[in-house]
Fold:
Amino acid sequence: AMQLRVAWWAQRLAKGGRYYDYETAYKMLAAYRALNPDHIGAAELMLEIAEATRNSVLQERLLERLMVLDPGRRFDYMLARAKLPLDEPGHEGEAMERLDEIAAEEGAGPEIREELARVYDELGRIDMAVRILDQAFLESSPPERRRMIEELTRLQIKAGDLDRALDAHTLLIREDADKMARRKALTGQLRLASREKRLAKLEADYRD
Structure:
């Protein structure tokens, strides 16, 4: 009963959106966790407060603790921790190292790998994004595969690998024949990328 009251009050205070409410909620949870250090719900509530108040040091500490307390969601916490340095300019390298650690592990699952690929793409690591999404594709069920094929096609166009993009696009047509609009959009991207590649080759030949 006591832990439910603490959680209820902490949530009400934190949802108030004013700094002193967050501060009061944090103090309540900190006092509760001092007596119950392994309570996952209290740690997650503190993490919400740390995120809302942009306290990256506290976020890091709580995510590392939650990785131990809740092994079933370990990769979720690892990914959240990996993205923390991206909030600070010039810390992309640190984020990349953490992302690479997750990519090297087995058992992350397709959802984590798909999000991992998205972050790699945002950081300009298209090669890693494609590799990770390939892995996610092999581990996923048919409904998720259709979405991933579309994303793989887009990434491979972006990487300039038109042969693989065409292979993925062909698979998309077979797997997802009903979604004409998206298929046409990707077809247009492929045609444009192919034309640009041919033009680049012509220019190179002309210079030679």
